[in-house]
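Submission sheet (multi-component)
Chains listed below:
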Amino acid sequence: MSTSLLNDLLTDHLDGGYAAAARRRAESGGAGRRTSARDRRVARAVLAAGLLLVGLLFAVAYRGTLRTAPESERTRQALVRDVEAGSARSDALQRRAETLSGELVKQRDTALAASETGDRVSTEVRRLEAATAQLAVRGQGIQVVAGDAVAREQVDPATGERVTVPPDDSGRLHDRDLQSLVNALWAAGAEAVAVDGERLAPTTTIRAAGEAILVDLRPVSSPYTIDAVGDPDRLLPRFADSEAARRYQSYTGLYGIQFTARKVGELRLRAATGPDLRHAEPAETRTRAGGSASPAGPGAASPGPSDEPGGGG
Amino acid sequence: MIPALALVLGVVVGLIVGPTVPLWLQPYLPIAVVAALDAVFGGVRARLDGIFDPKVFVVSFVSNVLVAALVVFLGDKLGVGGQLSTGVVVVLGIRIFGNAAAIRRHLLRA
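Outcome: structure written.
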């Protein structure tokens, strides 16, 4: 019985009704000729109604699929567009801020160049700016690349096939890891440090928000590139000898994280985003350009090895 | 000619008017479409075989759709809706392919 059912399924594709109807027509063949004109009109109307129904069904199903299925996809696309527009805008604003602060520096220097006190203030301001990462920096240095463990290929012992093993959670770098690497770089004598292009100022934080790591409130993603400006011949050995670097070097074998450090001939780090001025106010009509207007925050403190950015996780 | 126009008219009306399908009917729509496709392919093949009958076509279309929906509905109630949907699609799919092959033999003689 089961084989005949399958046989029917595989061989008889046509609805049995057609053959039956044809047989009936053949039997009453001679008599049916007379009424065929009216019959044919009815038959055509029936067929038209049926096909109308078919078309309607197709259209409704099409509309239904179109409306429901891509809803989530459309939402996702809209979100992606929003994010891209937002970061493009943020980048443009950042560039504008940089050009404006460059102009500001030029204006200030011409204003201060006139007098002896101005000169002294000017050098003092420059020293402070370098210390607070308010100036773009260029020079030799080292580049440290650290990243989450990547998926590995492994031969499955049972099937002999190559399968990719997704990294587990222990191979993920956290904000703490970036903090200790950056601190090790400061300790090794780095003059300026940037993480994924974000220049670190004394007040910059490296912290986690959920799964993401934020450097100065901008998200960075693995692998993290840490650029440090300084004498590479001194910086690299001292960094490589640091406790943090040795620890992460051992983690490469232990957890499969990525970790490399190399000398770089030319690094360009841009200025950090300036601190919000909390106490300074625009000078009104004072001819003596005052040194009293100082940026807020611990700007005056030198970013020595102990003055770690992002110390508070 | 008129049947083809009726089909096009149905599609156009469906697209323009866009009747909202009640939510409880939504899961049966794909099955109904497959059943309708089966009926349409069967009709075309019967036409080419020279044994087409409008009444058989319309009745087979309506009953196909209803039975397919009913089977899936019962499956849903019994907790095997997914499997029964698959079964219906497989059976109707085999028939669609068979009829399409017959139509191809008719039209292309190959």
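Remark: Chain A touches chain B at residues 9-11, 13-15, 17-22, 25, 43-44, 46-65, 68 (CB under 8 Å).
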